[in-house]
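Problem 12. The chain below contains 198 residues. Write out its predicted structure in token notation.
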Amino acid sequence: MTFKKKKHHTDHLAFFDEPVQMQRFDVVRHNWVEKFNETQLSFFWRPEEVDVTKDKSDFETMSDAEKFIFTSNLQRQILLDTVQGREPLKAFLPIASSPEMECAITEWSFSELIHSRSYTHIIRGVYNNPSKVFDQVLDIPEIVELKDSLDKYYNDLEHHNFLKEAKEKGLDVEHYDSKAHKKATYLCLFSTNALEAV
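Solution.
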């Protein structure tokens, strides 16, 4: 990575500005992003810190319908957090322009991976054969369709990121449209936040 000081980092927009140079947080432009970062970090915990031994006995007392709902929810969360653990880095990081936004995206991805590990911890705690639960996830059409409905926004944004990068390198590719790129970013941010809210 080449470091070239062009303008002060506090003059950078969150997205679509000059690339992030040095990570620094002494002074930030987007205080709301920095507060989000601090909140994310305050929620950090390791799944193994939580004792799930009682969960197994509770699980055994559930009806078949309750077990189905419990397991299906975890399977859904596992697949969606797999997407959320990877895609923000691929989709949002290339267009992040401020150190605090770059940090937020990286911490967001890390948090989603911790969530996935948490679901694994829960499933290991209640199932004798946890691998069976994981092996079934991609065989459930409703869960895969939900993942696909989120993927389409990430894929669209990543396509626009590719076109922008290709244009900057002088490659002959289809027309890059800055407005369409920003719209794809907005829709992707909106869909991921809607997912987290639901």
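Discussion. The radius of gyration is 20 Å. Students who got a different answer should revisit the alignment rule from Section 12.3.
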